[in-house]
Here is the input.
Amino acid sequence: MEPTNEDAVASYSTKGAFLCRQSSTRWTPTTDQIRILKDLYYNNGIRSPNADQIQRISASLRQYGKIEGKNVFYWFQNHKARERQKKRFTTDPHHPIQKFRTSANFAPSNDPSTGLALVPSSSPALPYFGYNSRESSASPRYGWVTENQLKAPYGVYHYKDQEADEQEDDSFAARETLPLFPMHNEDFKSSTTSSNYYNSNSPVPYTSLELSLSSYFSQSHDAH
Amino acid sequence: MEPTNEDAVASYSTKGAFLCRQSSTRWTPTTDQIRILKDLYYNNGIRSPNADQIQRISASLRQYGKIEGKNVFYWFQNHKARERQKKRFTTDPHHPIQKFRTSANFAPSNDPSTGLALVPSSSPALPYFGYNSRESSASPRYGWVTENQLKAPYGVYHYKDQEADEQEDDSFAARETLPLFPMHNEDFKSSTTSSNYYNSNSPVPYTSLELSLSSYFSQSHDAH
DNA sequence: ATTCTATGAATGAATG
DNA sequence: CATTCATTCATAGAAT
Here is the structure.
């Protein structure tokens, strides 16, 4: 019943690419899906949608082509990661080589046949001891001292800066993300949890997800 | 020969055949390790092994390659979390349906790949399908089942995953986990909190860990 | 057809 | 437990 072309990944509206029928492999987002995803990302500040949001988003995007929750999940995950990665390179405090394709060799020792090589091998002793709380799960948090420590780590930076992004995309024109009509958002409770704000010049007055989504397709999709 | 294949990783066969050995610091499970971990997870109901179990498991898996306790710990954490997450944004929270899915396909008795568990597995190293690179290659570990599958346009659940994961999920999945030899399961209680083991929808009539583990490398060989 | 690149998918490791 | 991050593997399409 639904317009979702369950097979054959919708053709791209732009470009040629007439249906290619490569279904069953990886998801190939349609231009509309991408457009909306980016809009949600940049104009609504959605970076890591929660399960609920993911569900709604994918449900909404389904009208533009086959898509599943995991696709949405990965999309945001990747988009965010790559944006961050890109930024990290440009502002990297210690401009490493970064782009040198590594394609070739410089095999770092170790002989493939036996593997290991460097590690002191498995010393049965000193196994982890981080977790211990109650019966099962435990948080390693800091323990884990093992033979790994013998290895020489090179600069381990672990900085997780939160936001900051730029309007790189803006490829598509006017976003009419305007909240106009009423909706049946009876359950958008935690929607705010992931609303990130970016530090600066983002116009983005993030609206609620349903609001945003609703603008893409006039109204109601399904009624469960 | 030896199951010492802890070199793990190995290159992917595509294109050029030069191994890329990223010598990363992170644990790269061998196919055997994964096979066993999954078996413990699915066929023995181990979800959050306690420190003691972790220790034994990792010690056991060590024969298949380098591994530490924390790896086991994280593996279970992640596996469980992802299985759950997958379900979260795959399943419609408002739709109680969705309880059947798959499970009807493969022989319930024991799953083809990870199954065994019961067999003394005289040859610890290898069956499994070809690859060893990261064990990945086309096996998406998790199912990501969505309504798409419910529609089953082609009437096929081709989960490109031979691993046949899931099946956990409060299912019954009749598993005759080898009720053969005497088990002195006096110690698998571990859970201190006794009965709260798997709160409710717990699957699997777990067997004692040692029992399970013992089946993997019953007769052992190598023995350095 | 082969190579390259952008990006989907996966997963180890953390953190809260 | 849920979330997040970093890396890496895999591949659809474009470029060559």
Observations:
- The two ends of chain A are 14 Å apart (CA to CA).
